[in-house]
Amino acid sequence: MKYLILLFLTFTLLSVIELHIIINSTSTDKYKGVIYNKKVVKESYFVAPRYKLATCAVHKSFSAMLTSILCYLNMEKVFFKRYNHLAGFNFNHKTCVTKKNSHLNSFSELIKIHSKGDEVNFLKTWKVIMVVRNPIERFISGFVHLCYTNKVRNYKEFCLGCGKDFKCFVNKLHSILTSGYKSAIHAYFQTKAHFYPQNMQCNYLKNKNKFIVLKFDPKNLESFYRSLEEILIQQKVPREKVEFIDKEIRTYRIKHSTTGKSKTMEFIKKFYKEKDVIRKLIEIYYGDFKEFDFQIPNI
């Protein structure tokens, strides 16, 4: 019964989001967007060297689960001493997150350490995954998880001093990002990682041609799962491990996932009544809508 209720809530949530983002959406160029040609957000790469796999973590875009997968592939015995399932992972797992040469802060560092500086060979043999999702969905997931439902560490800084007030938060985020490069880079690092546009993550504008970009779409998870499975197979991950990963990501969710939860539904009802807020979010994330081919809400 609990599973059926969760399925119903998930379906309802996705239907509401689809109503606002997909059905009533058209492409438009009336928004200017926010783009900086310099690095704004610190890069964060996790690797499984045996299989020449890496990911650049884009928070609220399947980042915890994908990092968990690489941690499992990189140190299976250590992983299972702590977790029974991939969904049990969190970024507080220091052994996985801080292991030497497994968590790196730039693409050039990836190449230097794992290909002896040979970029051509690295790009030929490695696959570096970047997962993105619809910017509005990502914002909702981040705000519900970090500001609306929980009081995380450094809550005031994380949520820009706005608490649960998403109108206050969006206004401040918009002001920060449209007030110049210095304003953008000096924001709290976790706010940047979770709420800045995805095209500002991973030094994307510089590294975009080096990534395999996968689109995480809760309305079309089958396509996402298949694409991820194909990459694992291409990198010669053993079949039994691929099957384990596939079963885990289809069956379990990371604890802080917000999809289908009652607080998310509650938030969405309030959120979509605020057209001015949505307009500002479209301007903030305009580059993501265009770069990753997501439909822009027509409001």
Automatic annotation (TrEMBL):
Pfam families: Sulfotransfer_2 (PF03567). Keywords: Signal. This is Sulfotransfer_1 domain-containing protein. It comes from the Eukaryota. InterPro entries: Chst-1-like, Sulfotransferase. GO terms for biological process: chondroitin sulfate proteoglycan biosynthetic process; positive regulation of response to oxidative stress. Residues 1-19 form the signal peptide. One of its GO terms (cellular component) is membrane. The keyword Transmembrane helix does not apply. GO terms for molecular function: chondroitin 4-sulfotransferase activity. It comes from Strongyloides papillosus (Intestinal threadworm).
